[in-house]
């Protein structure tokens, strides 16, 4: 730039000096960074803004204004001018700028060296891993931890019985197969074991009988807890399992890239769960069949009962930048390839799909049917769904532009009649209804599939009412309502939904529930070490988070939450105070009465608005009225849509 010789001359000299140092081996070149030293004279902002490399060819498509060689970054610097006044100048930095005008914002990105051991070899621009714990290299207990049996015990069994079964990082070998498995005969470094495969459940023969996944004795999927980020943690799922032994539990979504780049034993932080938590479903997120196949094989030895592909999340980070989640519904053929790759590497676990009824302007019933038809042909049969492929349908469309994830759960209208129509048009496929299910009565009515017992006219009902809920609409999926009121929603699920004769012993009173959950917390706290600021991993706060709404609707519930928050501020780092002691202490400080702690779940449902209890007959009438209201809502649905004849094609054969 001839107009600014004071800037160009130092830049040119610095570039020449850097190249000379690099060629002589005295200064290693940084990948992704300009070879401009930071020790340059300070220049005003307006001048540095015009400093550019000589080459300015554009890269990227469309309207991108990115440049092949990124511009220099203006780094803020303070100097003292005349009269003692402090003036702000800019110093040209060797950092890489990102975006068309990132130099104006003084963007600073860490560039990785070739010899930096903290960066992954497959991603040279990645940041070094964060040291989350003080002694992260110390081996952590796996399998049985303080009396709690975890699914990682199955991994330890494979380590003992099939040496060399695990290989990391996961790449393709000369046969085009993934090296998730270890050695294959001969003990060579590039070979794998021929005794172990995750294409079916044959790997379970190397695991003890008491550790094998109980896939042959699982309950039907009449009720399940929807996958929710930061909610359906292993701790919340364990609390739910203490309330109901039959309800299916979905994990938080785990991204395929996360599992692809994580080695044992750190994988336990993403995949491990108590063996008592069966039945449990692992939800995966991704849009690459190859990566999803690797993620499925990585998760297989943990023994999940099912794998689920996320095709319904509208989050901008997932459906936008990540190009998976709800955006996958726009590419049904890709989804079919993904579930086929997952099924081939799931270790015998069935693969299911969770999706919406539409995305953006692709929200017609015909397009939804085309999606179900294309994907169902590649889904394996699911034992929990009566031997049929299973779709969990969130009965709302997803608007990827203009609505937040929270608004996407409330603004788009519910279309239950579409799910009923899907069950009618696809009798060879099973469906679970998600969205707007907030009470156990609605879940019970749909699970039973018969509205006749809840007629207002003494049992007289039409033939249309008998077939309103098809048999392949097997159940419901409850989301945030289960976290907002776990005791009120789930404590009677085994009896009301699954037809058991009794609920678990830990669901007969909150006192027994808190005692059992406190023992779990004491055994689990600090399992993965301690952070640099003194918090255990998992921390006390994370462990008690599922309890925050346990006393919803009860006297002194808010006072107890305030007492718990004060106790966490005081003793969260104190290793001498157990979680059980913290719970007992806050129950006293919060004024939770013995009546509340010892009352069975039916008492709360048998209470008048003035707080007085109901008689047994009044309680039975109240429960029947709630079921009748749920059936009335289902009868008042709009007429189900009808698929156009010209869009019907023969379904692909099931796997």
Blueprint (SSEs and pairs):
Blueprint: H1 5-24, H2 45-49, E1 73-80, E2 86-93, E3 144-145, E4 148-149, H3 152-161, E5 223-225, H4 234-243, E6 248-250, E7 254-255, H5 256-260, H6 268-271, E8 280-285, H7 289-299, E9 306-311, H8 316-321, H9 332-343, E10 351-359, H10 365-376, E11 390-398, H11 405-408, H12 416-425, E12 430-434, H13 440-448, H14 463-466, E13 473-478, H15 480-484, H16 486-490, H17 493-496, H18 510-524, H19 540-544, H20 557-571, H21 579-589, H22 594-598, H23 601-605, H24 616-635
Parallel strand pairs: 5-6, 5-13, 6-8, 7-8, 8-9, 9-10, 10-11, 11-12, 12-13
Antiparallel strand pairs: 1-2, 3-4
Helix pairs in contact: 4-18, 7-9, 9-10, 13-24, 18-21, 20-21
The number of helical runs is 24
By DSSP, the count of extended strands is: 13
Shape: globular
Sequence stretches where pLDDT stays below 50 over 5 or more residues: 22-131, 183-194, 457-467, 650-655
Descriptive notes:
The protein has helices at residues 5-24, 45-49, 152-161, 234-243, 256-260, 268-271, 289-299, 316-321, 332-343, 365-376, 405-408, 416-425, 440-448, 463-466, 480-484, 486-490, 493-496, 510-524, 540-544, 557-571, 579-589, 594-598, 601-605, 616-635, and strands spanning 73-80, 86-93, 144-145, 148-149, 223-225, 248-250, 254-255, 280-285, 306-311, 351-359, 390-398, 430-434, 473-478. The protein is α/β, with parallel strands linked by helices. The strands form 3 sheets. It has an 8-stranded parallel barrel, surrounded by 6 helices. The chain has a two-stranded antiparallel ribbon with strand order 1-2. The protein has a two-stranded antiparallel ribbon with strand order 3-4. A hairpin with a 5-residue loop joins strand 1 and strand 2. Helix 13 packs across helix 24, helix 18 (510-524) runs antiparallel to helix 21 (579-589) and helix 20 packs across helix 21 (579-589).
